[in-house]
Amino acid sequence: MKLLLRRDQRQGVLGKVVFTLEVRAEISSDERSRIDKYKLGKEILYMRNKDVPQEEGWKGVGKLLVFHALNLTITVNDLVAGKKVECKDILEMLAAEEQIKDAAVSFGRILEAAAHFGGEEVIPIGADEKQRAA
């Protein structure tokens, strides 16, 4: 898997600069088949705001609907298809970029682990590893 990032900026409606980050994962056909086989497409890799409003009644339902409509989440399917993240400043964009990179690396490990079910992996430890390095 390869993670492709593109930073950009544009003028907002009120003249303020809006920073954008476009993210997309390039995956192989084997990785695509693992995503499908293990139903990983809807797994959330990134969520901008994790504090879900906790309120009861109709007011709580309204706040929850607004939260989900305005909050940014990136799933595995979003990453594969490509997603644009708009940020109010550079710091927010860099923080989002870092979290998305970390999530993509972790997801890459998951895909790698999924490739080894039903097989055997040998990991040299200790003296064997030192001999290989020499």
Give an overview in words.
This protein is α+β, with helices and mostly antiparallel strands and 134 residues long. The protein has one domain. The chain is 46% helix and 24% strand. The chain is built from five helices and five strands. It has helices spanning 29-37, 57-70, 76-81, 90-114, 127-133; strands at residues 2-11, 17-26, 44-47, 73-75, 83-87. The strands form two sheets. The chain has a three-stranded antiparallel β-sheet with strand order 1-2-5. It has a two-stranded antiparallel sheet with strand order 3-4. A hairpin with a 5-residue loop joins strand 1 (2-11) and strand 2 (17-26). The longest helix is centred in the last third of the chain and has 25 residues, at 90-114. It is extended and about 60 Å long. It starts with a strand and ends with a helix. The model has no long low-confidence stretch (mean pLDDT 83).
The total count of helices amounts to 5
The gyration radius over C-alpha positions equals 20 Å
Biggest sheet record: 3 strands, antiparallel
- What sort of overall outline do the alpha carbons produce when their principal axes are compared? extended
Helical content class: 40-55%
Give the rounded overall mean pLDDT. 83
Could you give the distance between the termini? 31 Å
Write down the secondary-structure element order. EEHEHEHEHH
Using DSSP, what is the number of strands? 5
Estimated structural class: alpha+beta
Strand order of the largest sheet: 1-2-5
Number of domains: 1
Strand content: 15-25%
Low-confidence stretches: none
